[in-house]
């Protein structure tokens, strides 16, 4: 019996991730590198641009079901999004919506390895991310929008808000999810507040397992490609959630109000606070019903 080959999902580039998630032979890339669709702003600042602007859009099937994938290349500009990269993702989601309105049940998978908006294209990037968020909300009424966060960049900035809008959110242990990245927090608040070099602390607060245990994501998968693909298929089969995570904004706002910024936060304290509050909310909901 042949030995099953282990493929580490985070080690693949964006194009490989999209190709490997789709059913064999179904991969079809839209606006690929030979279309030379790249940011016009980077070269003006003597920054080497990339012919697909760091985003791979692919169309195909997962488990025989039509799917569009938008995969961000974390190795290009830290996975940041500008005008072109953001427009590609928003456009792909809008095409998937058009498919559904035409009777083709196309779901979307977003592979999110990104630091958020590209600083060189700040306003244009922010506008593009807003379009992505709007497109996610529109599409998720018809078919699931599934986000995947893996290493080494993780998902931060405006795209972390987009991740929160997804129907389902998957993370590997290597993934990280937060509104602001560790380096940004350290820069603005000081190393005493947040040491960006303290890896156990960083992953303990924003890593995949912690985010899963505290209810911010739906599954913490293994690092193997097959484990990630199986998780995508599983949540896709569950269909549209009865309640999206973003509909529970009052719950998450209440969590913010329980925080005391004067107290030292670590992984154990964060987990205890979030899981306790979630349990109390569930109990209260049960009592009201």
Automatic annotation (TrEMBL):
One of its GO terms (molecular function) is transferase activity. Signal peptide: none annotated. InterPro entries: AcCoA_carboxyl_beta (IPR034733), ClpP/crotonase-like_dom_sf (IPR029045), COA_CT_N (IPR011762), Malonate_beta (IPR017556). It holds the Pfam family Carboxyl_trans. It comes from the Bacteria. Residues 1-190 form the CoA carboxyltransferase N-terminal domain. One of its GO terms (biological process) is carbohydrate metabolic process. This is Biotin-independent malonate decarboxylase subunit beta. It comes from Terasakiispira papahanaumokuakeensis. The lineage of its organism: Bacteria, Pseudomonadati, Pseudomonadota, Gammaproteobacteria, Oceanospirillales.
